[in-house]
Amino acid sequence: QVQLVESGGGSVQAGGSLRLSCAASGYIYRRYCMAWFRQAPGKEREGVAVIDSDGTTYYADPVKGRFTISKDNAKNTLGTLYLFMNSLKPEDTAIYYCAATPTTWSMTCSLSLSFDYWGQGTQVTVSS
After folding, report:
1. pLDDT tens digit string along 23-44?
2. Which of 39, 53, 28, 55 shows the shortest CA–CA distance to 91?
3. Residues 83, 6 contacting (CB under 8 angstroms)
4. Would you give the distance in Å from CA 99 to the centre of its chain?
5. In sequence order, what DSSP letters do the residues of 22-35 get, joined into one string?
6. Closest CA to 36 of 82, 104, 91, 90
7. Which uninterrupted H or E stretch holds 72?
8. How many helices (H) and strands (E) does the chain have?
């Protein structure tokens, strides 16, 4: 089992920045995919960014050039996942979720994967 705990959400004005963190603990898989998703009121959950065990990243079009995903792998832990959000827009307002899932060498890490583990979410509100 893997536990994910997000932090760092809050309220900010348009154009501002926030950093989200996701502390991961539990079973250490050899390879895994970690990602950020978000869900705005009245909308379906959407993928934001994903990173694989080798550090390869992929971003959804609405956040490209503004958001950066990264992870900090402390030895013998799953580490901490981050989402650096710059030039925030009101349409970025949502609950942001951290997710993780084990992968194999033959699997491509993407936002379309079925993620096994989810955090509780953290609210991000961007005002105009």
Report:
1. 998 887 878 899 999 999 999 9
2. 39
3. no
4. 7
5. EEEEE---SSEEEE
6. 82
7. strand 67-72
8. 0, 11
Token pair listed for 32: 């895994």
Q: Tokens 């004005």 identify what position?
A: 13
Lowest-pLDDT range of 51-55, 73-77, 81-85: 73-77
**b/e for 17-34, b at 16 or more Cβ within 10 A?**
ebebbbbbeeeebeebbb
Distance CA 101, CA 124 (A): 24
Is the backbone of residue 18 left (phi > 0), alpha (psi -120 to 50) or beta?
beta
Over residues 13-31, the mean pLDDT reads 91
Using an 8 Å Cβ cutoff, are 13 and 89 in contact? Answer: no
